[in-house]
């Protein structure tokens, strides 16, 4: 507990207002979410798309497949009981679906190169992001991948009923069309060899390619019927596998397991079941992916630990031990036997989706690239530089399996590092975010944004007819919002990027803002230590993850404290302020990158 | 137009004793000037009624004319309301109260509505000890007609026009003490810690309760030379006491404070501040009002209280049943009854 009263908030630090925009702050690539949602509401889908493309590179892919850390962060969750977040991810898909021709908005690629050559190993989201961020600066990027086309795990592990090939091809194409020198169907087998070639820097974005196996009794005997999840998904994606037995058991509870079971349903699986070691509540799969699987008649079993495989008349019998989870004081889980009879399930095929590991068998260990825990490379967390200065890592290859949006964020940082490195600059002196803060006052009672936030519940994305989708591996299940639904959902956004900015020198302490605030979020009070303040505000503030906005001392010696946690950004404080001490200012935060890429002719403020 | 109240309220706002949240006591979004003290008074009324679990349908809001008299639109949306004639709110309140004593009568008036055009009605409603809370939203100027000095403006005080007021002010609290009001308080719109308990106590008081609230006019009368500005009022406030209102059911420890029992079981708990008078002593209260004013201070707090004085209904010995609940027989007892009354008067 801090003893001293709080210091006035330093709003000049861009990170302060950034953390108020919960969705953007939670996004690893810091996509300016409210800005593109407003553009969608205005029907300006191309511009909304480009805002996304600038930040997250794969809006069409991510609008379907993102892990969406933005949504649990959404302020809408917290403003009233039983509120749900804005469907940020699916709105992203809307602007991707409805965008016009973006070719003219893509960055120019200099014909005259800068003479620096960068090798990109792996063709997934991280490598492609590095290429996107370096090509416009004149770098020569040479990309190697063992698949026949770019996209990495987005192509090999995400089934086409969730991510149509066309969507992926377009967004990979925007980057490869910049003139990336691509070498597909090519395995890189030696880092030593790569380093011997004339590259100024090497980026490793090879993902976490090794699916985990389960070494239990009968594993070898049943080998023909047991498939490693990510390998099997890749074989399906590339057409090597086109069918599976009628009865399938999927082991594992993550998103790969969800993709495996749903794919199996489409390749002939009739009795497909998911069996998880842990309780359901600890399952790693995103709740919506689990719901989609359950909607396809896929039952799930919890607390079943596989102990033995047995072949019986060409079928696999899997024996499970029933367990229950116990948690110690620190929340650490142990699965202890429940003492019940073992459960035996019989099936035609087993899909093993119990995790994946990094593997760098092709990186020699005597060339200066150090590896640490779990055989992961030793990296600088900010620069992604390895112990061999010209080698950089990103995506799942850097710190282990995460997700696409994290890989993109890594790509941006690695590209910055590679650029600085190739220009002989200090990697620690990184570019700043690009920030603007502009008043939104138009006239008396007029703001340039809509503060009439919809009270509607979150809109569900419609799904195609299940009878059809289960028969067609390539038919996309989610249909996406139409324009009407997109506008209705967009109207739920609170516009948290329109910041309440307080100028203490103008305040006459009339209490008008505190009186009118519908969330009772503003208090004039004696300054105090944070715990004390939080307990004595007009409305108690328990969410310490959200800052208190504390003013400088006012003429009476009190301070103004605004609890950012539940602020609706409705603008009433500024409306009722007689001295314009409050203003509503739109905060645009563009996360640091090597450069700004989009050639937009109009900004959001310049109406179409 | 983006001037709207959002539908959301803080997720921690708990329902009060009768299941209502604060939102149920709100009104429309104010159209007064931004920063008007009156809005803070509306907010204090909302808070007091919410915390006291007042049933909104049992409140009658009455007002006259002026900025102040617009404010009943901005609180207690679900209560009865009567926006009456300029300076005539007391007579409407008297009529309503005589017809139905079961409602809580909350009158809101301004310094013009009370001390200029309405001074006569104001004086007489106090004499009669009508059971109501009368709040004066006192800003020392006629805000609705561009800020001319009102009858409560202090001598020498200037509004935005720059002209010093020449005429001696009406002090509503001093007048109320003089004329027999049984609950006299003064407060400041910018001090809810004081104002909210006073409103609660005033609503419970079994007679006429006056709260004269200094409520700065931010548009016309909030300049440095004004004696009704935010800054001046803050600097010159002199609280007579610290007031706490304790509902009937609540328990509290004795700490040397003065406890004034209300007939409905509630208690107004007062803590006298050093060198201040006993608020149960009318002469001392009147003296305190005068002497603090001479010192250039604004005496605030609960200045005087007398809960024993009979209210108008008691003095007139009127029926306890609201007229609307009486049948034709009781309301029109016929010629014989009239004759009996006339006989008594001969």
Helix content of chain B: 25-40%
Low-confidence stretches of chain A: none
CATH architecture of chain B: 3-Layer(aba) Sandwich
Q: What is the CATH topology classification name of chain B?
A: Rossmann fold
From N to C, what is the helix and strand string of chain B? HEHEHEHHEEEHEHEHEEEEHEHHH
Reported for the largest beta sheet of chain A, the result is: 5 strands, parallel
Strand order of the largest sheet of chain B: 2-1-3-4-8-7-13-9
Number of helices of chain B: 12
Name the beta content range of chain A.
15-25%
Q: N- to C-terminal separation of chain B?
A: 68 Å
Q: Under the CATH scheme, which class of the largest domain in chain A?
A: Alpha Beta
> What do the pLDDT scores of chain B average to?
92
Query: Mind telling me the CATH superfamily name of chain B?
Result: Thiamin diphosphate (ThDP)-binding fold, Pyr/PP domains
CATH architecture of the largest domain in chain A: 3-Layer(bba) Sandwich
Strand order in the largest sheet of chain A: 3-2-1-4-16
Structural class of chain B: alpha/beta
For the record, the count of structural domains of chain B works out to 1
What is the helical fraction of chain A, as a range of percent?
A: 25-40%
Q: Helical segment tally of chain A?
A: 21
Structural class of chain A: alpha/beta
Gross morphology of chain B: globular
Keywords, please?
heterodimer, A: 608 residues, alpha/beta, FAD/NAD(P)-binding domain, five-stranded parallel β-sheet, 24 strands, 27% helix, B: 346 residues, Rossmann fold, eight-stranded mixed β-sheet, three-stranded antiparallel β-sheet, 12 helices, 13 strands
Characterise this structure.
- The complex is a heterodimer of chains A (608) and B (346).
- The longest helix of chain A has 19 residues, at 404-422.
- Chain A is α/β, with parallel strands linked by helices and 608 residues long.
- In chain A, the strands form seven sheets. Chain A has a five-stranded parallel beta sheet with strand order 3-2-1-4-16, covered by helices on one side. Chain A has a five-stranded parallel beta sheet with strand order 6-14-7-8-9.
- Helix content of chain A is 27%, strand content 18%.
- Chain A folds into three domains: 23-103 and 455-490, no CATH class; 106-209 and 358-422, FAD/NAD(P)-binding domain (3-Layer(bba) Sandwich); 211-357, 3-Layer(bba) Sandwich (FAD/NAD(P)-binding domain), CATH 3.50.50.
- Chain B has 346 residues and is an alpha/beta fold.
- In chain B, strand 1 (59-63), helix 2 and strand 2 form a beta-alpha-beta unit.
- The relative contact order of chain B is 0.12.
- The chains are: A alpha/beta (608), B alpha/beta (346).
- Chains A and B meet through strand 19 and helix 19 of A and helix 1 and helix 8 of B.
């Amino acid at each position: 507990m801090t003893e001293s009263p709080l210091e006035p908030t330093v709003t000049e630090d861009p990170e302060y207002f950034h953390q108020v925009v919960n969705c953007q702050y939670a996004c690893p690539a810091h996509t300016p979410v409210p800005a593109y949602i407003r553009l969608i509401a205005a029907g300006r889908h191309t511009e909304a798309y480009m805002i996304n493309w600038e930040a997250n590179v794969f809006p069409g892919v991510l609008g379907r497949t993102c892990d969406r850390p933005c949504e649990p962060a959404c302020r809408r969750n917290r403003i009233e009981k039983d509120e749900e977040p804005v469907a940020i991810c699916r709105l992203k898909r809307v602007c991707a679906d409805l965008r016009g021709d973006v070719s003219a908005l893509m960055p120019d690629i200099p014909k005259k190169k800068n003479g620096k050559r960068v090798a990109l190993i792996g063709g997934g989201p991280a490598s492609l992001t590095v290429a996107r961020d370096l090509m416009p600066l004149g770098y020569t990027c040479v990309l190697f991948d063992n698949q026949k086309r770019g996209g990495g795990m987005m192509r090999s592990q995400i089934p086409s009923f969730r991510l149509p090939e066309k969507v992926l091809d377009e967004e990979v194409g925007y980057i490869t069309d910049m003139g990336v020198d691509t070498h597909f169907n090519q395995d890189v087998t030696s880092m030593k060899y790569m380093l011997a070639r004339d590259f100024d820097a090497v980026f490793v974005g090879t993902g976490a390619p090794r699916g985990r196996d389960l070494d239990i009794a009968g594993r070898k005997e049943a080998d023909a019927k047991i498939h490693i999840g990510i390998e099997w998904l890749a074989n399906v994606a590339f057409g090597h596998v086109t069918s599976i037995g009628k009865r399938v058991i999927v082991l594992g509870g993550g998103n790969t397991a969800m993709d495996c079971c749903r794919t199996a349903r489409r390749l002939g699986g009739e009795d497909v079941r998911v069996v998880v070691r842990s309780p359901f509540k600890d399952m790693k799969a995103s709740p919506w992916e689990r719901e989609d699987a359950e909607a396809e008649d896929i039952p799930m079993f919890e607390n079943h630990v596989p102990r033995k495989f047995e072949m019986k008349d060409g079928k696999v019998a899997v024996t499970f031990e029933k367990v229950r989870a116990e948690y110690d004081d620190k929340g650490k889980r142990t699965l202890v036997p429940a003492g019940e009879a073992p459960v035996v399930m019989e099936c035609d095929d087993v899909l093993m989706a119990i995790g994946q590991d990094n593997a760098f068998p092709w990186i020699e260990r005597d060339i200066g690239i150090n590896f640490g825990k779990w055989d992961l490379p030793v990296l600088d967390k900010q620069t992604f530089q390895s112990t061999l200065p010209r080698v950089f890592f990103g995506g799942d290859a850097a710190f282990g399996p995460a997700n696409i949006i994290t890989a993109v964020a890594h790509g941006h940082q690695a590209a910055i590092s590679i650029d600085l490195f190739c220009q002989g600059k200090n990697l620690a002196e990184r570019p700043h975010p690009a920030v603007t803060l502009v008043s939104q006052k138009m006239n008396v009672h007029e703001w340039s944004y809509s503060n009439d936030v919809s009270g509607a519940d979150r809109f569900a994305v419609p799904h195609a007819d299940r009878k059809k989708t289960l028969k067609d591996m390539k038919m996309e299940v989610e249909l996406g919002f139409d324009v009407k639904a997109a506008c209705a959902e967009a109207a739920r956004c609170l516009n948290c990027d329109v910041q309440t900015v307080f100028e203490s020198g103008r305040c006459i302490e009339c209490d008008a803002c505190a009186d009118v605030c519908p969330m009772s979020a503003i208090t004039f009070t004696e300054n105090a230590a944070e715990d004390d303040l939080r307990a004595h505000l007009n409305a108690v503030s328990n969410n310490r993850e959200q800052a208190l906005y504390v003013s400088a001392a006012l003429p009476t010696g009190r301070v103004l404290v605004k609890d950012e946690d539940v602020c609706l950004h409705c603008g009433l404080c500024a409306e009722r302020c007689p001295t314009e001490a409050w203003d509503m200012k739109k905060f645009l935060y563009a996360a640091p990158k090597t450069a700004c890429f989009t050639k937009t002719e109009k900004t959001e403020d310049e109406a179409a | 137009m983006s001037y709207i109240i959002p539908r959301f309220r803080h997720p921690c706002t708990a329902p009060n004793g009768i299941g209502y949240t604060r939102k149920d006591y709100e009104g429309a979004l104010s159209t007064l000037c931004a920063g008007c003290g009156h809005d803070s008074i509306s907010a204090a009324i909302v808070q007091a009624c919410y915390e006291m679990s007042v049933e909104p349908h049992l409140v009658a809001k009455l007002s006259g004319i002026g900025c102040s008299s617009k404010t009943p639109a901005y609180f207690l949306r679900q209560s009865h309301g009567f926006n009456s004639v300029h300076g005539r709110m007391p007579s409407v309140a008297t009529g309503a109260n005589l017809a139905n004593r079961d409602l809580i009568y909350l009158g809101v008036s301004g310094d013009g509505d009370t001390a200029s055009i309405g001074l006569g009605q104001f004086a007489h409603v106090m004499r009669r000890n009508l059971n109501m809370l009368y709040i004066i939203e006192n800003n020392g100027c006629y805000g609705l007609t561009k800020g001319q000095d009102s009858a409560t403006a202090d001598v020498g005080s200037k509004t935005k026009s720059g002209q010093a007021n020449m005429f001696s002010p009406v002090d509503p609290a001093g007048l109320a003490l003089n004329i027999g009001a049984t609950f006299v308080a003064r407060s400041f719109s910018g001090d809810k810690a004081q104002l909210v308990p006073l409103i609660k106590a005033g609503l419970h008081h079994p007679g006429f309760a006056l709260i004269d609230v200094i409520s700065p006019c931010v548009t016309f009368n909030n300049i440095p030379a004004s004696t009704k500005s935010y800054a001046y009022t803050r600097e010159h406030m002199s609280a007579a006491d610290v007031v706490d209102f304790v509902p009937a059911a609540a328990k509290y420890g004795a700490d040397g404070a003065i406890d004034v029992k209300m007939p409905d079981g509630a208690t107004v708990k007062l803590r006298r501040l050093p060198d201040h008078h006993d608020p149960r002593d009318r002469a001392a209260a009147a003296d305190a009002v005068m002497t603090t004013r001479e010192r250039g201070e604004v005496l605030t707090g609960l200045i005087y209280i007398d809960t024993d004085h009979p209210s108008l209904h008691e003095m007139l010995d009127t029926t306890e049943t609201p007229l609307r609940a009486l049948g034709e027989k009781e309301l029109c007892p016929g010629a014989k009854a009239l004759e009996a009354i006339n006989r008594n008067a001969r």
